[in-house]
Design goal:
The chain has helices at 2-9, 22-31, 42-47, 58-67, 71-79, 89-94, 188-200; strands spanning 12-16, 35-39, 50-53, 84-87, 95-98, 111-116, 127-133, 137-143, 148-152, 157-162, 165-171, 174-177. With 201 residues, the chain is α/β, with parallel strands linked by helices. The strands form 3 sheets. Strands 2-1-3-4-12-11-10 form a 7-stranded mixed sheet. A 3-stranded mixed sheet has the order 5-6-9.
Length: 201
């Protein structure tokens, strides 16, 4: 039934609900015209048109993905071209390589980039800053223990920088930001991703 509703109202976009700020992404996706749903199991992943990997704790998220039997299904669907959008911890999970991984930390991959965890500082050094995102325009970037992108491969489009560091990228159907657009009430990035999902569908 969810699929029928998605066809009528907009693409069915899941939010990986293992850990992190899931509720805020569900609300932002709904505001952007998508039909949002939570994804915790491989069968739920198989049903969605696209997926958001939220902010949270990237090490915990990767370990839970293994525990729930989600890591390989995620890798398979992302490799097959399912649209995916990662914010903060989600950006880390979409990287091919982490510079300073925690023990046992794995990634889904999908974007040819190397990232640095907690690059902008610890929790008490969180901040907001204006970020100009290609294809979207100026947005208010909320950076919470945020990573940055150290380097990207030839196929990766850099969409935004802050302080000389890459903070938003796209490669094919994969989008990632180091900041949290779901916390600002500005739904344009979720709208941008929703359009990516529509185009891919």
């Amino acid at each position: 039934m969810a699929g029928d509703q998605g066809a009528a109202a907009g693409p069915l976009i899941g939010v990986l609900a293992l850990q992190g700020d899931v509720r805020e992404h569900l609300a932002a996706l709904a505001a952007a015209g998508a039909v949002p749903t939570t994804v915790r199991r491989p069968d739920e992943l198989a049903a969605v048109d696209g997926l958001v990997i939220p902010g949270g704790e990237s090490t915990t998220m990767s370990k839970l993905a293994v525990l729930f039997g989600m890591l390989e299904p995620l890798r398979t669907r992302v490799r097959a071209g399912m649209p995916v959008y990662g914010t903060c911890a989600g950006l880390i999970l979409l990287a091919e390589k982490i510079l300073d991984p925690r023990s046992g930390q794995e990634t889904v991959g999908g974007i040819d980039m190397i990232v640095r965890r907690n690059a902008f500082g610890r929790q008490n050094e969180s901040f907001e800053a204006a970020v100009d995102v290609v294809g979207v325009g100026p947005v208010d970037g909320v950076f919470i223990r945020a990573p940055w992108v150290e380097s990207v491969g030839a196929e990766v489009e850099v969409l935004a920088e802050h302080g000389g560091h890459v903070v938003a990228v796209r490669q094919g159907n994969a989008l990632a930001t180091a900041f949290h657009p779901e916390l600002t009430g500005d739904h344009r990035l979720h709208g941008f991703f929703t359009e990516m999902v529509r185009s891919a569908g």
